[in-house]
Amino acid sequence: MLPPNARTLSGATDAAQHLAAIRLPSEGVVLPPPGSDAPAHLLLIGLQSRVACFHAGLAWHLDARHYVWLAPVAATTLRSATVRPADLLIWQFKPSCLPDAFLPFLPAPDRSPAHGPAPLTPSMETLILALRGCPVAPALRTLWGTGKLIELLTLVLPPPADASPAQATARVLHPALRAVIDYMAAHLADPIGLPEMAAAVHTSPSHLSRLFTAEFGHGPTIQLRHLRLDHAAALLRSGQANVTEAAFACGYLSLGQFSRAFTEHHGQPPSAFIPRNNG
Question: Global pTM?
């Protein structure tokens, strides 16, 4: 039974899937075992502080920015493991809300926890940020939330046992990174910064910075500078712009600053990239 302060983010308590944000009361929460009309799976996502979890004779901790997937066979008890309030998301769902192709991947009820506890990946964190600030109309939230549930479960599932090492470790660029790089490319001449970039892909500046650092080893503002200076070099090489025009096309209002940044990035001054007339 969820506490009175639970806030529904997707679905409804009597629906095939129900996502709620809660702050654990001091006495904790006991989620009843699944019955004929109850959801059969639980996905718990820690947001703030540590949560002590008890289920089917097992006990573990769910840390902030971690998740655990349960296929419960008994009641689940959740309590704050510290003196601080514990916030978390509780996603209850039935297999009936998932596409048939997904059903073979669901864990058996005797595997609990089925997956985790484990830290959220950057892709999961971006998805959860969207869930907590749902951008769609109320009438569409259940449909949208079910799609997000499928996306999140897909991220939780490990690669198949027979996957090759290349398949198991292949890295796909995070959707938020692809989107913000496209945004940068469309605004090379504009005075955009980290807040504008984060807003364009519906995430927070701090989360976007973490994504960039994890993927590229540097932040988004450095990535923007690299894109600008590479674009300037392409303009100069092709003869489409002189040094002043290339600087302005890439958002630089100071020729001195542009020249210093260009030389540091490319190892040569802008003038070295201008084609020579051999005629």
Answer: 0.62
